[in-house]
Amino acid sequence: MARDDISFDANCEEDLSILQNYIAELVAYVELRAINKNQQTQIALRESQYRLIKYKELLLHAEYIDETDLLLMYTELSKVEKSIAKLGVEALTIAINQLDNTFINS
Fold first, then answer.
1. Which of 13, 15, 35, 39 is most buried, by CB atoms within 10 Å?
2. What pTM, to 2 d.p., does this model score?
3. From CA 92, how far away is CA 38, in angstroms rounded?
């Protein structure tokens, strides 16, 4: 979880490539899930983005909150969202912004 963050460097091309793959995987997963649930894709993507934002906020304030709160939010994330979350705050920020760009371009 938060304590097991993988080292992520936004200036490293390889790390960014891995993150971009996770984001593409997330978008594809959410789109497929939305179709299967007869839900609008944009709404499903916003829900995913909201979970990432909420987790990021808790992670930023982890030293001031009960670890249980962070763990509970982590369990609400999908497998792909967890992969992004494990990369840390910087990766979460990039993913959240990328999802915003997805909405702007759709």
1. 15
2. 0.89
3. 27
